[in-house]
Amino acid sequence: MTHFPVLDLGIKPAVPLDQWRLKIGGKVERPATFTWTEFLALPQVTDTSDFHCVTTWSQLDMTWTGVPFLAIADAVRPKREATHVFFKSYDGYSTNNPLEVCLDEDVLIAHQWNGAPLTVEHGGPARVIVPKRYAWKGAKWIREITFLDRDILGFWELRGYSNTADPWTDDRFS
Ligand SMILES: Nc1nc2c(c(=O)[nH]1)N[C@H]1C(S)=C(S)[C@@H](COP(=O)(O)O)O[C@H]1N2
Ligand SMILES: [Mo]
To answer: Hey, which of 8, 11, 89 would you mutate to test ligand 1's pocket, going by the most ligand atoms within 8 Å of its Cβ?
Structure first.
C-alpha cells in the first residue's frame, strides 16, 4: 500500500505528546483522562482491515496498532443507559456511532499504521478506526470520547452523510 489519500477539514492540529490527552466521560462509572504514557500502557492490538472513504476509494489491508475500544470501555465501564458514543477531535471534527458498533473487536484507537507512528496527516498521535463503517466514522486526532444515552450527530452526519455509514450497502448519504 503506497497511496493513502488525506481527507480532512484542512486543519492538521500538531499535538505534542506531552500535552496530548484522551478524555473519556459521559455515561460511565469511572471517567478517565489518559496521558500519552497511560494510553500506551492500556492493552494494545495489531489488526489488518480495509478502509472505505465516501468518495469511492477503498484501501485494502491496512495494518493498525492501537488500543481496542473494548479496552477503553473496560477501563471506564459504560453505564447501563449508554447506547451511543460521540467522538471529538483536536481539529473540531466530530462523529458518532452506536455503542454496539464501537464494541466490535476491530475498532481501535490507533497510533501506528503499517508499523510506524501515525503521521499527523493521517490523524496522529492517535485516531479512531471503525473498519466496518465508512472512514468518516473514524475521528483523526482524537481528543474526547463521550458515552451517551441518545444519538448526537457529528460533523458530516449533520451535513447529509449517512448516519449508519455501512460500506457494504453503499450507504453513503442520508
Ligand atoms: N478529526 C478528523 N477526523 C476525520 C476527518 C476530519 O476532517 N477530521 N475526516 C474523515 C474522513 S471524511 C475520512 S475519509 C478519513 C480520512 O482519513 P485519511 O486522511 O487518513 O485518509 O478521516 C475521517 N476522520
Ligand atoms: Mo471521507
So the answer is: 8
Q: Provide the CATH number for the domain formed by 21-169 in this structure.
A: 3.90.420.10
Helices (H), the chain: 36-40, 69-76, 99-102, 155-158
The residue whose CA has the least distance to atom 13 of ligand 1 is 136
Residue 139 CB–ligand 1 contact under 6 Å: yes
Strand pairing category for 21-26 and 142-148:
parallel
Q: What is the pLDDT along the chain (174 residues), one digit of tens a residue?
A: 456 788 898 889 999 999 999 999 999 999 999 999 999 999 999 999 888 877 777 888 889 999 999 999 999 999 999 999 999 999 999 999 999 999 999 999 999 999 999 999 999 999 999 999 999 999 999 999 999 999 999 999 999 999 998 888 878 887
Bridge partner list, 22 = 34
| Domains in the chain: boundaries | 21-169
pTM for this model (two decimals) = 0.96
Q: Give the Å distance between the CA of 110 and the centre of ligand 1.
A: 13
Ligand 1 atom 17, closest CA: 7
